[in-house]
Amino acid sequence: MNRIILTFVFLAFTVGGDSVSAAGQDKWAWSAQLPAQLATKSGRSNRTSDAVHELFRGPPRPPGIQDVLDAFGLPDAFSPQLIYSKTKGTGGPSRAGGTLRYLLTDGSEVHIWTPDFHAVGFAIRYPTKGRPDILYK
């Protein structure tokens, strides 16, 4: 839990102007409607924890958003909020970008925050049980 809180503090300081207005927490505002910047021809595939770890542990590190889309296809949902926890995002939207949500075959989920729809700013896998796994920060 402390790791998640420290990570949120890190994110709050790295996104600058977003941190003050978005520092609170709120339920995720997930939407199946995806921004045009997330368009891809790749179908949903490789939705396993092993594939996620392979993508985030291997080169390039971190993968870009296009690498994520090529590997897993379209996300299951999108939110303009920043990551706070598995069940909550920040209280307000970020100025640009947002969080992609992928549901994996083992019941876990991956949240990937992008500040600009090109780079991965933060990624975390939430297993069904146990501690979250920070894939990239």
Topology overview:
Blueprint: H1 2-14, H2 18-22, E1 25-27, H3 49-57, H4 65-72, E2 77-79, E3 81-83, E4 88-93, E5 98-103, E6 109-114, E7 122-126, E8 133-136
Antiparallel strand pairs: 1-4, 2-5, 3-4, 5-6, 6-7, 7-8
Description:
Strand 6 and strand 7 form a beta hairpin. This protein starts with a helix and ends with a strand. The chain is α+β, with helices and mostly antiparallel strands and 137 residues long. The chain is 26% helix and 26% strand. It has 4 helices and 8 strands; from the N terminus they run H-H-E-H-H-E-E-E-E-E-E-E.
Attribute tags:
137 residues, alpha+beta, three-stranded antiparallel sheet, 8 strands
Helix content: 25-40%
- Chain oligomer state: single chain
**If you average the pLDDT, what whole number results?**
85
State the separation between the terminal residues, measured CA to CA. Answer: 16 Å
Describe the main β-sheet briefly: 5 strands, antiparallel
Number of helices: 4
Q: Give a count of the beta strands, DSSP E runs of length 2 or more.
A: 8
Please provide the ordered H/E string of secondary-structure elements.
HHEHHEEEEEEE
Biggest sheet: strand arrangement:
2-5-6-7-8
